[in-house]
Amino acid sequence: MDSWYKPQAVGPRRKVLVASRGEAALRVFRTLREIEIESIGIYAHEDRFSQHRQIFRVIKRVGKA
């Protein structure tokens, strides 16, 4: 390794961005909730009424799907 590279310990994650939709997003959300990790979801305008958008506490809209 180069001398400029110094790996650092990283603590446990507290938030996870779920960039998926449908059943996959629901499964990830449920698992994260069980292990008490906050999930952040994203959605496109076309998905604004979908189920995965309704379950996240933190949800952000992104561009077109």
TrEMBL record:
Keywords: ATP-binding, Ligase, Nucleotide-binding. PROSITE patterns: BC. InterPro entries: BC-like_N (IPR005481), Biotin_carboxylation_dom (IPR011764), PreATP-grasp_dom_sf (IPR016185). Pfam families: Biotin_carb_N (PF00289). Residues 12-65 form the Biotin carboxylation domain. GO terms for molecular function: ATP binding; ligase activity. SUPFAM superfamilies: PreATP-grasp domain. This is Biotin carboxylation domain-containing protein. The lineage of its organism: Eukaryota, Metazoa, Ecdysozoa, Nematoda, Chromadorea.
